[in-house]
Amino acid sequence: MSADADLVVVGGGPIGLATAIEARLAGLDVIVVEPREGPIDKACGEGLMPGAVAALDRLGVHADGCDLAGIAYLDGETRAEHRFQRGPGRGIRRTVLHAALADRAHQLGVRRIVGKVTGLRQDAVGVRVALGASRDLLTPWMIACDGLHSTVRRLTGLARVPDSRKPSRFGVSRHFALAPWSEFVEVHWTPTAEIYITPLGPELLGVAVLGRRGLDFARVIEQSPDVAARLSGAAPVGTLRGAGPLLQRTRRRTAGHVLLAGDASGYVDALTGEGLRVGFAQARAAVSAVVTNDAAAYERAWADSTRDFRLLTSGLLAASRSPLRSRIVPAAARSPRLFGTVVERLAR
Questions:
Q1: Which CATH number goes with the domain that contains 122?
Q2: I want to staple 283 with a disulfide (CB 3.0 to 4.6 A). Which of 18, 21, 100, 199 is the partner?
Q3: Which of 73, 76, 49, 77 shows the shortest CA–CA distance to 332?
Q4: What are the pLDDT digits (tens) for 214-246?
Q5: How many domains does the chain have?
């Protein structure tokens, strides 16, 4: 097979670009396939854990943002907070982060094709990637980073059918021209949803709401008098953006010469806020597996890198859906050492 590149990365979001950068730093020739042009926005909390900040530094990616001292959970007058022990996190507007990653990828010589994967076929030596009527790409390896609703996950048969008995959760976010009032990412717990407040700059806040299908952003904000009062009169920046359903399961993360990374590889929920940290770790492990020609090694590395995320987030999500929901923040406030231990495990 005469390959078009050593590696084809499907998806040009933050994890796809980080994967491409990892691959170029490892000496691979890389093509990124992405249908959208320009910086890609997304409904998310936009707060990077210290581990994610360190990963960006290692990749040579530098983006303007706002230092984050830690994480705080709030429910009415009750507050539980933990300061990061290994340096600050960073609040970075998603479009700013994407532009910085794209610039670094371009600097390293990553090639980009504007297109959408419509099919793929594999044999013993590689993958033929169909891009509609335009062309096919031949590559020894593919890493799919094409998000929550991954086309490649479906084409490879790696997706698991969701459990219809579990209610789906969704996210909605918006930005406000307002000076941050805290150096922490604040997670305000309401009876029906969580509100993430992330400082992104001297006069910019990101506000994300997570809850069940059909959640109303304005009504959820009203459920937290403190947040509603602080946002009163603040000018919104841009439009509301939504994402979901958040829960995505996979049978495996590998199928022959195709690997899944980032949200495409499976996603539990955003309650613990370390999606990019985990995604960057997956990007590094996936490229290592390509270099060593060992897909099984990636399956093991994926399990290791996501274990804390899956266990802790699943447990917290189960509690948030139960009668224990109202006790989560008070319990964290009564056990600051335990709360801090959990945050540090997720932040590293």
A1: 3.50.50.60
A2: 18
A3: 73
A4: 889 999 999 999 999 999 999 999 888 887 766
A5: 1
